[in-house]
Every structure is written in structure tokens, then in C-alpha cells.
């Protein structure tokens, strides 16, 4: 239960109290768990799965030339950092661990995919021309 006094806390408490009455006895241990649906420890990792879906979409659809190595590298690093954090916090949050390991894996694979393309094409002096964003060169291009 939220201890806040704002309107969102009131809404959250109303929803939790309403659902609490209809949760079957079999699902009670999960519902009452320290990292169960009554807490942010459940909802935050659940929302983070959207980041995993975006990464999987990039793995399947995005050409390696347009993958941002910096962005994917940072996301992979945060996946490792938050994986460690999931063991340090109390209660231990295995759903947070799972989502962050998958974030690390998908973003790490995107980095490998982009670096492999760069290595294979560096001698060809290849430059990817994006079909929707033509690059125009200027004197002050950095």
C-alpha cells in the first residue's frame, strides 16, 4: 500500500484494495510477496520489459550501420549495474535481475552487430546513406 497522500496514491490504494478482494487463495503468496504486484518492485521491472522489446525490434529490423554504439553500450552497462543492484536490495528482486540481464544481452548484441559491420567495411570506406535522412556535408561538419 502506498503511504503517499496525493491523488495517484489514492487511486493506487483504491485499485489495490479492490483487486485484493478478488485474488484467489492460490495466488495469495504471489500477491502478498515482498516483490509482488502490490509493490513498485513488481511494476518497475514489468515496465522495463518495453525496453527489451525495443531492443529485440532493433536486433531484427535495424541495419547495423545505424545502430548507436554509444547508446547501446550505455544501455548494456546499465543492465549490468541494475542486475547487481537487484541482489543488493531487500527484498531480492529476481524479476529486476531477469529484465536487466536481457537488456544487457540484447543491447550487447547490438553493439557487437554494429562493431562487426564497421570492421568488415572499414577497408571499403563504406558510408551508409540513410534513405530518410540524407547527410549533407558542410565545412563545419564535426
Automatic annotation (TrEMBL):
Bilayer topology term: Multi-pass membrane protein
Record's GO cellular component terms: mitochondrial inner membrane
Keywords in alphabetical order: Membrane, Mitochondrion, Mitochondrion inner membrane, Pyruvate, Transmembrane, Transmembrane helix, Transport
Protein role: Mediates the uptake of pyruvate into mitochondria.
Family: Belongs to the mitochondrial pyruvate carrier (MPC) (TC 2.A.105) family.
Subcellular location: Mitochondrion inner membrane
The protein's name: Mitochondrial pyruvate carrier
InterPro entries in UniProt: MPC
GO terms classed as biological process: pyruvate import into mitochondria
Gene that encodes the chain: LOC117564635
Source species: Drosophila albomicans
Amino acid at each position: 500500500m502506498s503511504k503517499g497522500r496525493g491523488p495517484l496514491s489514492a487511486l493506487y490504494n483504491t485499485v489495490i484494495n479492490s483487486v485484493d478482494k478478488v485474488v484467489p487463495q492460490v495466488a495469495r503468496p504471489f500477491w502478498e510477496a515482498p516483490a509482488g504486484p502490490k509493490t513498485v518492485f513488481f511494476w518497475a521491472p514489468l515496465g522495463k520489459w518495453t525496453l527489451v522489446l525495443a531492443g529485440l525490434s532493433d536486433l531484427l529490423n535495424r541495419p547495423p550501420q545505424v545502430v548507436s554504439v554509444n547508446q547501446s553500450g550505455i544501455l548494456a552497462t546499465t543492465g549490468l549495474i541494475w542486475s547487481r543492484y537487484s541482489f543488493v536490495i531487500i527484498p531480492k528482486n529476481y524479476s529486476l535481475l531477469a529484465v536487466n540481464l536481457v537488456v544487457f544481452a540484447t543491447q550487447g548484441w547490438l553493439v557487437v552487430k554494429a562493431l562487426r559491420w564497421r570492421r568488415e567495411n572499414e577497408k571499403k570506406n563504406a558510408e551508409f546513406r540513410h534513405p530518410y535522412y540524407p547527410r549533407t556535408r558542410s565545412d563545419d561538419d564535426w
